Amino acid sequence: xxxxxxxxxxxxxxxxxxxxxxxxxxxxxxxxxxxxxxxxxxxxxxxxxxxxxxxxxxxxxxxxxxxxxxxxxxxxxxxxxxxxxxxxxxxxxxxxxxxxxxxxxxxxxxxxxxxxxxxxxxxxxxxxxxxxxxxxxxxxxxxxxxxxxxxxxxxxxxxxxxxxxxxxxxxxxxxxxxxxxxxxxxxxxxxxxxxxxxxxxxxxxxxxxxxxxxxxxxxxxxxxxxxxxxxxxxxxxxxxxxxxxxxxxxxxxxxxxxxxxxxxxxxxxxxxxxxxxxxxxxxxxxxxxxxxxxxxxxxxxxxxxxxxxxxxxxxxxxxxxxxxxxxxxxxxxxxxxxxxxxxxxxxxxxxxxxxxxxxxxxxxxxxxxxxxxxxxxxxxxxxxxxxxxxxxxxxxxxxxxxxxxxxxxxxxxxxxxxxxxxxxxxxxxxxxxxxxxxxxxxxxxxxxxxxxxxxxxxxxxxxxxxxxxxxxxxxxxxxxxxxxxxxxxxxxxxxxxxxxxxxxxxxxxxxxxxxxxxxxxxxxxxxxxxxxxxxxxxxxxxxxxxxxxxxxxxxxxxxxxxxxxxxxxxxxxxxxxxxxxxxxxxxxxxxxxxxxxxxxxxxxxxxxxxxxxxxxxxxxxxxxxxxxxxxxxxxxxxxxxxxxxxxxxxxxxxxxxxxxxxxxxxxxxxxxxxxxxxxxxxxxxxxxxxxxxxxxxxxxxxxxxxxxxxxxxxxxxxxxxxxxxxxxxxxxxxxxxxxxxxxxxxxxxxxxxxxxxxxxxxxxxxxxxxxxxxxxxxxxxxxxxxxxxxxxxxxxxxxxxxxxxxxxxxxxxxxxxxxxxxxxxxxxxxxxxxxxxxxxxxxxxxxxxxxxxxxxxxxxxxxxxxxxxxxxxxxxxxxxxxxxxxxxxxxxxxxxx
Length: 897
Ligand code: ADP
Ligand code: MG
What we know:
Blueprint: H1 42-45, E1 60-63, E2 65-70, H2 75-80, E3 88-91, E4 96-100, E5 106-110, E6 113-115, H3 121-137, E7 142-148, H4 154-159, H5 171-182, E8 189-198, E9 201-204, E10 216-217, E11 224-225, E12 232-233, H6 237-250, E13 266-278, E14 300-311, H7 318-321, H8 326-349, H9 361-365, E15 375-382, H10 389-402, E16 406-409, E17 413-415, H11 417-500, H12 503-552, H13 557-604, H14 619-623, H15 631-639, H16 641-647, H17 653-667, H18 670-678, H19 681-688, H20 695-708, H21 712-720, H22 723-733, H23 737-751, H24 757-762, H25 765-771, H26 778-800, H27 809-812, H28 816-822, H29 828-842, H30 845-853, H31 856-866, H32 870-882, H33 884-893
Parallel strand pairs: 2-6, 2-15, 7-14, 7-15
Antiparallel strand pairs: 1-16, 3-4, 4-5, 8-9, 8-12, 8-13, 10-11, 13-14, 14-17
Helix pairs in contact: 3-5, 11-12, 11-13, 12-13, 13-15, 13-17, 17-20, 19-20, 20-23, 22-23, 22-25, 23-26, 26-29, 29-32, 30-33, 31-32
The structure holds adenosine-5'-diphosphate and magnesium ion.
Coiled coil: 421-470, 518-594
GO molecular function, one term: microtubule binding
Binding site for ATP: 148-155
């Protein structure tokens, strides 16, 4: 169908088909995009790379594409040529054109595209210009140029604005439309220059006063620019249309005979496209991906490409146009540029060594378009009239030659320092802002934590103080109540005792009730201990929290320091309260103990004595317990020996007295002695002997020491810790018979240790013992006598075993006169101890002489006769009989046993 549509198109094809311009024409589609770099043929490409490239990237070959467009007959032609066939016949499906020579001969030419008189403006744009525009958007230079005889439709093809009919819009408008759709308003920019080349002068169509613009070539890259030309930034299609209208109004149009609308100047529209892109090989950080800041900065690139749209002046010969005078000059100039273009294209098509680019301004301006780095499309326009057959033929030949021109397409891309700097600046500002935000958030958080910590500390402080106060009050109340109850019980017991005289009944009656009380007190104490432990835990927790808070925020240091001081105060307060609690407990312990004693005394019908006797200190405790722990011991377990011993050093004298009493009572029980000594109780008690200001303390301490001194291991400890000198000092200072009794008892116990004999004497123990006889109290004297008896017994044992010899140390220390004096003391315990002492002394011959001289013999004789104890009587007799000196003295005195 298509071939039928052409007039004179059938049966006339006698001529041979002209060979294609080059072998690769057919295989390349006119629309094809840039070939991949692997298709690049270096041999052909390198030949022309020098001209306009300013990047170092290797180019890709891109031949100049040529389309031919036939204008429909105009009104004149329709009339004048009515009887003639068109000079051309088109075969668009074969992309061929036949040019008739005459009625029977024609020549066939192949083009990249053959556009018939029916081709729409849209199709023309898509086929001819769109691939070029797309290349420009990709960063390549591009050229679309219309060549043809005046009146064949160059301006129609390129420059129509299509204001009344949008389908009539030409390539200029459609190209801009496409560019505007594809660029980014933010990062890209488009500007336009519109120029006219007329008689080798470049005029600015956007500024007519600017009528001699010079061409500048970059010596390094060979790139051509027109720095003097006006560049107008294009934001939308409307502003572009206005610009074109303005340009058109300025365009010099000279009428010719051929067509009143045709122009004899070359119109050049330059569209500069600047696009920012990022290098593909580098990861692009996203807004949300904060971690990739500065990690791999993308490589910012800028692509500065240029689309050149050239509406050439008519290609017809001057003489035919009928120009005269000035018009003739003008036609020559027009032809100068056009013929220079033709020569260049010929040279390029034939691979000529010299391409006369510099011959005209047009060829200089278009150096990148032909044989350069741009993608170039040429549209040659022809008319159908056989009258212009010659012009049409030369136009076709121009197009054919242009098809042979091979360009080396190269992307116009360079590193975008400005954009990089801008991007980094923005990123930096973002980071600064982010940092500021984070810092503020951090400060707020620290402040919040401090405040919270402060609140919590004060809340716990409050709770803790309340709890302690409550506990203290409760303890006090309980203590008062216990005291009251015990007093009531005591009174009740005393009354019962007086009335009935039968303590058996009393014991049975009150025992269980008392035990219940103790149990209650024990429970209370347990509860209290538990509460205290809880409070301690809370304090520790708070301390650790405080530590954490201090770490978290250095800013809140001062505040936390204050809180710490407050907390320390609180701890101190708590310690004081705890001490008070211990005191209360020890008081309770003491009371319990006294009550215990009282009960036992009542049970025995004796008088109340809080401290067990020295002779048999543990008997009272043991007798009623039958293997069970006493209530006192149980309480002692709860309170803990260390805490009681701590109280011995309390600043409060009352507390000290209480504590020492408790310790003394505990020391009376053999089971407690080891624990007391282990906890350093002995040392503490010895220290108390120095507290001259209080007799009670000294008395009770001495009693406790006396009890502890019953144990052999403790005796050595007492000596090691200088106890004998402390006891001696007390013995010489004290006046109170009870104190002296306790001190004497303690020394008496030490006297019974074989290992300590020498030390006792050397450290003044014997002297101290004998010194105490100044107090005539029988209890004191009894302890002194016991000590002497113990010492004498050890000495005699050592003498018998051959460990020692010589006179008794007792005699050395001057004890004998007192011994003799009190050998017949009225008090039975004194008498018995002295009788035993005399027997022991007499057993050693070294003492005999002194004893005889001191009157001891008479006493020994008396013992053999008067002593109420048979064992002692016989011991005395045996002793006297076994001594030579005693026997001879008895003989001399005529004493017979
Ligand atoms: P040139 O710029 O080559 O001198 P113009 O573009 O001015 O030619 O066209 C000359 C006349 O022909 C104009 O009136 C134009 O409208 C008309 N014309 C050109 N090409 C076509 C076409 N393809 N279809 C219809 N009219 C056309
Ligand atoms: Mg024109």
